[in-house]
Amino acid sequence: MSSRSFSLALLCGVLAAVIWGSTYVVTTELLPPDRPLLASLLRALPAGLLLVLWQRQLPQGHWWWRAAVLGTLNIGLFFYCLFVAAYHLPGGVAALVMSCQPVLVMLLSVFLLHEPLRARPMVAAGIASCGVALLVSVQQASLSVIGIVAGLCAAMSMALGIVLSKRWPKPASISLVTFTGWQLLAGGLLLLPITLWQEGLPAQVSLRNLAGYGYLCLIGAVLAYLLWFRALQRLPAVTLSFLTFTSPVSALVFGYVVLNQMLTLQQAVGALAILAAIKLAQRPPAPVISPVAGVAGRDPLFTPFNKGKL
């Protein structure tokens, strides 16, 4: 992969994570309280229908059940747990609980992709964990067990979705828009009967609520997942997973800018540690000149996936 393509893939992943970081502000400020299933449904199902109707291409063969599994992990289960966490925890805490996802991706990659644990991402994960500890330790809010468990489940769901997406790469015959639409639609259809059974439909919806749902659907789902799945096609699973550390940092920034939440020096140091960890995990090593072949070698982290290396 060229340096330019690698940088563009990183940019797509970062932008998606930043958008997801804004989810917590939108949830608390624009959506009705105690309706995580409805928020999940209206984020996924309309977005999936829009993309599938636009492309008009359905799965074939084993991609029916693969799309259902990926849609459940990446969209349906993940959205539900995400919104439960957002309703029960402050935005920064909810995002930070989910920041264990890169570690889960590394462990799952060992078993499902037969990839070894590598020193660079492990060191980066340790640095990021220190940054997370600095950020969480200054939060002046009670922590909900339900919210923490939901955040951990969301992290596990998406981590498994990332790894399985690398194990089952997108068929060359379908577009990225179609692939994204399948998963959003599958996740939305999973949430539909559960939402109607557990929450039902609200008696009234304000313009403020509609604005929030519209943002989550068009920006938080359609745009963010197109960017995310584009990055997923081009980056190794572990490399991509570290970009999710951008989400808690952006959540804190959005909270500071939009909600006037306090941002202390300790939080700033924690955020810088997280950004440094992301940089460490993503930075390709300098090319090494082979004394035998006389050509530049590459770190296994950045060899193509079909060679069986991260």
From TrEMBL:
It is found in: Membrane. Pfam families: EamA (PF00892). InterPro entries: AA-Vitamin_Transporters, EamA_dom, EmrE-like. It is a multi-pass membrane protein. The keyword Hydrolase does not apply. One of its GO terms (cellular component) is membrane. Keywords: Membrane, Transmembrane, Transmembrane helix. The chain crosses the membrane at residues 63-87, 93-114, 121-138, 144-164, 176-198, 210-228, 240-259. Residues 9-136, 146-278 form the EamA domain. Belongs to the EamA transporter family. PANTHER family: EAMA DOMAIN-CONTAINING PROTEIN, INNER MEMBRANE TRANSPORTER. This is EamA family transporter.
